[in-house]
Design goal:
CATH superfamily of one domain: Ribonuclease H-like superfamily/Ribonuclease H
Strand order of the largest sheet: 1-4-3-2-5-6
CATH class of one domain: Alpha Beta
Number of strands: 13
Strand content: 15-25%
Helix content: 40-55%
Structural class: alpha/beta
Largest sheet: 6 strands, mixed
Number of helices: 20
Distance between the termini: 46 Å
CATH topology of one domain: Nucleotidyltransferase, domain 5
Length: 488
């Protein structure tokens, strides 16, 4: 196993791999449970006979978009190289999407043969490695480890490397099943030129929002990855660290004793503008200025757009100051911040009952949770960099978040959405959200399942958006037209 971290050595090795006829490839994803997962490492095996991972190369590409593009351009879209994956549709979200060529998926091969013929309990890669290829001591513990941290542990690297070894062994084993074996063992089914995909086992509130905006973009993103952000403004700046900026703001409030002093006077003596100004100054000096300097040193054109981001953050701080002063009527200066901003695990999971009597798991991660003592209510907060293109889609998304959290807390949950560019606040009461979650969301989730199982050239593909102006600002307009036709 060779673990490569330097840009030059990674590019050099990628160029060497372009002469290969076949590669066995896998990936590990950081923050996979969030709305912004990141490709962490790419593992490549060059020899199928390697059972001890000596010919595995691990490329560390976390937040290195140039290296990811190099791998896609040199390897993934190269039709001369066969790339073997297990559950290829997942990895292709990060490695070229529909542009990738000459892809083999061992999961698809295994499904065509069937687990009954293979005599395995399921078709997961590690199950096939254990039950089909007789590997022992297959490690499953590191699958859920933190692939965003650095340095990676030796245990993580070995786990990642062995996945490609298992993949190659499973691939070779599946190739050994002759057509005769399959035909005599598999129950015959009616021939069909169209194979439906399996229904998704889980969805996210973000995909639900996308389903309201454009079912076809939902389909492309689910199967092939790619951007889903409609931007209706010409003044666009890539602020990928936006949620980190807000997290650092709240962490600063929770952890700096200077803020306790601000709330020592009684609530009636506190002035929103003064409290907000003090928070703004400290946050700018401790956090935002350094971010601004780093970003503009790489691209001086970011100065004006990021100053607009700062103006939006200042407005957000004013809203926080208003809430803190409200809660100061009920809390001491020492406790008001910690009683306002609820620190806990933000991941959510809930099984929705669908109209066809099935269940669907929805997974998500909300941005923050606060408590308003005047209303005696918890309120879930979502932060958005840009204004939504469809308010009904945004409402559906936060309705799911609030409903899932309310099931967890056994309490009503209001929602607030703060958009920064330009700053705007959207408030939704629990009474609004609960009605939507009960009446609308289950039907929409079932509809999404149906859309996502479609396969060309079957009739009735996912419908185009009912808002034609979105096509003009769609981040995947060309892909959509080539996949669904020019009427999309």
């Amino acid at each position: 196993m060779q673990y490569l971290t330097g840009s030059i050595e990674i590019i050099t090795k990628i160029n060497e791999l372009t002469s290969a006829k076949i590669l066995w490839v896998d990936t590990e994803i950081a923050d996979w449970y969030t709305e912004k997962p990141r490709l962490s490492i790419i593992q490549v095996l060059t020899k199928a006979s390697d059972a001890v991972n000596e010919s595995v190369y691990i490329f560390d590409v976390l937040d290195k978009l140039d290296l990811i593009s190099c791998f896609i351009n040199q390897i993934m879209i190269n039709p001369q190289i066969e790339k073997v994956f297990h559950n290829a549709s997942f990895d292709l979200k990060y490695l070229g999407s529909i542009d990738a060529q000459n892809i083999t998926c061992t999961l698809k091969k295994a499904r065509r043969i069937s687990k009954e013929v293979l005599q395995v309990s399921n078709l997961q890669l590690k199950t096939l490695a254990t039950e089909l290829c007789n590997f022992s001591d297959v490690d499953k513990e590191e699958q859920g480890s933190d692939w965003g941290r650095r340095p990676l542990t030796q245990k993580q690297l070995k786990y990642a490397a062995m996945d490609t070894v298992y993949l190659a062994a499973v691939h070779q084993h599946l190739l050994g099943f002759s057509k005769a074996n399959v035909l005599t063992s598999v129950i015959e089914v009616a021939p069909s030129s169209v194979q439906l995909a399996e229904k998704p086992k889980s969805l996210t509130p973000n995909k639900l929002r996308l389903a309201f905006e454009c079912p076809r973009l939902l389909y492309l993103n689910h199967h092939f990855g790619g951007s889903t952000l409609f931007l209706q403004t010409e003044d666009v700046v890539d602020i990928g660290q936006f949620h980190n900026l807000v997290d650092e703001l709240i962490n600063l409030l929770l952890n700096k004793p200077e803020f306790i002093e601000l709330f020592k006077p009684s609530a009636s003596e506190l002035v929103v503008e003064q409290i907000a100004y003090n928070i703004q100054q400290l946050y700018y000096n401790r956090i935002f200025y350094a971010y601004l300097q780093k970003a503009t040193s790489k691209d001086s054109n970011l100065s004006q757009p990021l100053l607009k981001v700062w103006e939006g953050l200042k407005e957000l701080i004013i809203r926080f100051a208003e809430l803190l002063i409200i809660n100061r009527n009920y809390c001491s200066a020492e406790n008001v911040i910690s009683e306002t901003f609820i620190v806990e695990d933000r991941k959510l999971e809930h099984y929705f009952n669908l109209p066809d009597n099935s269940q669907l798991r929805v997974l998500g991660r909300y941005d923050y949770l606060v408590f308003n003592f005047d209303f005696n209510r918890l309120c879930l907060i979502e932060f958005k960099a840009y204004q939504p293109v469809d308010l009904s889609a945004q409402l559906a998304q936060v309705a799911v978040y609030s409903y899932m959290l309310s099931q967890n807390k056994k309490a009503p949950i209001d929602s607030l959405v703060y958009c920064i560019l330009p700053f705007k606040e959207y408030y939704y009461s629990w009474e609004q959200l609960e009605h939507i979650a009960h009446k609308l969301i289950p039907r929409k989730l079932q509809q999404m399942q149906q859309w996502l199982t479609w396969r060309a050239p079957a009739p009735n593909p996912p419908p185009a958006t009912i808002q034609p102006h979105l096509c003009q600002i769609c981040p995947q307009q060309q892909k959509c037209q080539s996949y669904f036709g020019s009427d999309s």
